[in-house]
Amino acid sequence: QTDVLVLSCDLITDVDLYKVVDLFRTHDATLSMLMKKTHEPTDVVPGQKGKKKPVEQRDFIGVDDTGKRLLFMANEADLDEELVIKRSILQKHPRMHIRTGLMDAHLYCLKKYVVDFLVENRTITSLRSELIPHLVRKQFSSPTPLQQGLDNKEEDQKKKEQGALDIYSFIKEDNSLLKPAPDNSCWNDHRGDMNETLHEGKVRCYVHIMKEGLCFRVNTLGLYIEANRQVPKLLLNLGLEEPLVHVSAQITDRGMVGSDSIIGSSTQVGEKTSIKHSIIGSGCTIKEKVKITNCIIMNSVTIEEG
After folding, report:
1. Which PANTHER family match (predicted)?
2. 184 has a pLDDT exceeding 70
3. Do residues 144 and 265 both lie within one domain?
4. Fewer Cβ within 10 Å of end Cβ, the chain: N or C?
């Protein structure tokens, strides 16, 4: 019965969540979301050599001068040779900044009526690729008109069904004096003609772009490896004094473990073994003369020389 917070299970972040939620509350937004500058893995991902890495399509993100109002969103795969921007957007926001290299963290605050809209509109199967771009476009579109007095009842019914699936038909009108700041206050976030702000559509989308901090989506092997490599730094930033080598781990005198590696509980490391830039799980047995570099080893694994 309330607004919702959607959080992807593969997101690792130390973002101050209130920054996303405050955008949602302050502007009575339909959507507020989290983005961060794209992070590329620094090292080569292990795997088949010579296998061509697929080229990821860029997202084009349009924001206003504040960098918070989300005005435009399009993926390179959906475009032809040109980036087309509707006149209705530029009429209300003549200054728009187009950014690339931003990662959608898949963290969204959504109005309850958006959930109601999804329940009725089963054709939308993806939040990221379908719903979010749809909401961004709807900010500058008029509600679907329901033509009255049509002689053809079948056509009339069709128009009503189309209107029922329009996001505007799920927004409840509020005529109280306690309307949100963007519509009924001396404060607003818009520069220029006040008439545009007071009569702007009910659908509003905002974005918080992280400038610093930890934000990973571990949805690829490369990003999973990179996220694990950030664990020592993360522990330090959080002020945790957990040792990187567990107290129950057994490291021989001639075994070498790098300062940026993590060794789990009850793991045994043999003579003349070298471990660098790696994460070793619990209950592992690393025998003599083994060299491990840039690896993630799960629990209860035995590794021998060669």
Report:
1. TRANSLATION INITIATION FACTOR EIF-2B SUBUNIT GAMMA
2. no
3. no
4. N
